[in-house]
Structure formats: structure tokens, C-alpha cells
Specification:
The protein has four helices and eight strands. The chain is an alpha+beta fold. The longest helix is centred in the last third of the chain and has 25 residues. The radius of gyration is 21 Å and the shape is globular. Keywords: Signal.
């Protein structure tokens, strides 16, 4: 009985990453960067922010952070009090997750997270303009049930290997208990 319960727990641990979402997801929003009057963000839109520069990516909703730091997307993914569906899109076939950043003098000016059709494979690509502004696009494909990859490359594997480690530890404990006839 106890051995069967432990086997069920082992299967649950191994499948846990897949229980988090029904399809691969990408983050989908624009962090507007350092922003003085955060109360006005509710009146802004991508059209107002981008204007005539249609080649600058911007995705609603617009996000500002209290301390003007890059959003903690891991907290957005794991915090149950946040309606994370507002910040996600489905990674449909032919699309990838993209994190598009503008960097000037070593500081991140803004970031757009989105689902997009791209011609490049996984990885980050950086272009420096004459003004010194750098544009970086990071492309990846999320896995079903795991945190969107357009946040950080290692988060998905960290979650999987953590659960796998717990499962292996549990299995070894069961084998030892069985060997010494404790269960």
C-alpha cells in the first residue's frame, strides 16, 4: 500500500511541470522602463508610446515597476495572486517566444516580450546603432507546462531537474526501505 502510494507520488513529481499549463506559453507585454509618473500608465497605449516608429515592438499591456527594475517574470509566473493570463500568449505553431530589449549605455531602456514569427533559430542577436543604442532580440521555443522561455533560458530546465531530483531521491529512499524490509 505504502509502496503504491509512493509510486503514485513519484509519477506526480515527474509530471508536475506539465501540469502548469495546457499549451506552451510566451510572456506577452511591454515593460516601459524607467518611468516617473506611474499613475499615468493606465492612460497610455502602444500607439501613443511608439507613434510613427512602427518598427519598434510594443505589446499591451504596458508594465511599469515600482523601483524601475526589469520585471520579475518568475514571480509573475508563480504568484497565484497575479492573473498571469493577462501577460501570456499561446506559442502557436510557427511562432516563437521573443524578448526584444533596447539597451543604452549599459542600461535597459525597455523590453517587449511577445509571441512572434521569426526567421532565426534559438539564441540572442544584438545590433548596435550609431547612437550607441543596442537592440537585442532573444528567440526561444517554450515547452508545454513550463515557464515561458522568453524570460530566462535556464528556468525551464531548473524546474524539470529539481522535480527529477526529488523523484530520484524518493525512489532511492523507497528502494532502501524495501531492501531492509521496512515497508
Amino acid at each position: 500500500m505504502l509502496l503504491q502510494l509512493c509510486k503514485s507520488l513519484l509519477l506526480l513529481l515527474l509530471s508536475a511541470p506539465r501540469l502548469l499549463a495546457e499549451s506552451p506559453k510566451c510572456f506577452h507585454f511591454t515593460w516601459i522602463g524607467p518611468y516617473e509618473n506611474k499613475t499615468h500608465i493606465v492612460y497610455e497605449s502602444c500607439d501613443l508610446r511608439v507613434g510613427e516608429f512602427n518598427d519598434i515592438p510594443c505589446e499591451m499591456p504596458l508594465v511599469a515597476t515600482l523601483n524601475d527594475t526589469v520585471p520579475d517574470v518568475k514571480a509573475m509566473w508563480t504568484n497565484p495572486s497575479i492573473d498571469r493570463d493577462n501577460y501570456l500568449c499561446n506559442m502557436t505553431p510557427g511562432f516563437s517566444c521573443v524578448k526584444y530589449s533596447y539597451v543604452f549605455r549599459g542600461g535597459i531602456q525597455n523590453i517587449t516580450y511577445m509571441c512572434a514569427r521569426v526567421n532565426n533559430t534559438n539564441g540572442c542577436y544584438r545590433q548596435t546603432h550609431e547612437s550607441g543604442m543596442q537592440v537585442e532580440a532573444c528567440v526561444c521555443n517554450s515547452k508545454l507546462g513550463l515557464m515561458p522561455c522568453n524570460s530566462a533560458a535556464n528556468v525551464q530546465l531548473d524546474t524539470f531537474y529539481h522535480n527529477l531530483g526529488l523523484a530520484v531521491c524518493l525512489l532511492n529512499t523507497l528502494l532502501l526501505l524495501n531492501k531492509y524490509n521496512i515497508i
